[in-house]
Design brief:
2 strands, globular, mainly alpha, about 65% helix, Serine Threonine Protein Phosphatase 5, Tetratricopeptide repeat, 2 domains, 18 helices
Amino acid sequence: MVCTMAFLRALLTTARSRHALGPTAGHTDLPADDAVMLDAPDDRLSPALVAAALGDFEPAAKLLAATRDAGDWEFRDRTLARLVAFARSRDEWLTGWLTSAPRDPDALLVKASLAVRRAWDSPAHAELLREVGPLITAAADAEPRDPVPWRLALDHARGTHAPHTVFESLWEQAVRRAPHHYGSHVSALRYLSAEWYGSHRECFDFAERAAEDAAGDSLVQALPVRAAYALLRDEEATARATSVQQDRVDAAADLAIGFSARFPVADPWPAEVRNLLACVLVARGRTDEAMEEFRRIGPYATSFPWAGMTGEALGGFLAARAAVRARAASAAAVRGRPEHSGRRGH
């Protein structure tokens, strides 16, 4: 592939060296740099995080209980991830919750997820993950309808080097509860990745089948673009990518563009998908479409994928946006010259 993640990193380096680029350089409807927020919680989650910072677990407990009662597994999983991210450094509220209600299915889920997250943070994650298996089982037993503990179990299987037979049995349990749960699909995709126990072809096959079966507004529509991102990050595989693989990457991006277009501009719900899509579009040199995606993102930057690209998520997002804006402005200027009239710029 001509355009790769190496190309993107070079582009980010160039953008960081050009701080003089102002907001008037094309697409002035983009939020100013200082208006961009990283991993901003939505209106439902913010009060729970504020209360947790004060040691009060009740708002978080009520929010998770509401997701369980409504069977809103996507929002439940997203809420869980944010609460666990907060609890990694401040878990007093969780300790108080478990003391007050040791059998609460929501408290048990947060406890299990936090243990999995902390285990993954350690170089000895395989050994530590084996120790937290009973916590995942307890969370699954506490609410048999919930697919989220089975998403944790899939992450656990990947980290403990579980064979494909174990993975398949866990996957069956997850999709039995929620056939199109995005979190479970992402965990399965990671297990099947070339980085772990599968291949880029397996990733694309799995992601494309899942997207075909899901509704148009399902987050699973973005699964193929995750497979594309995994391929683009693998520079050895990218260097020998076939035309079929390149076509699959672009088809995945096209599908995600259609998904993104279903939601309002500056909607926090699809923000991570839009950030990932923008990253892939930039890496593929699809400048105009990347610029449109940054417009749709609005102020909602997300750690994934920028932290993995640059080590500093917000800076990576802003550098990518500035680089794309500069390239779009340059291409527009070239297209405006008389000798280029009637031609299509790229």
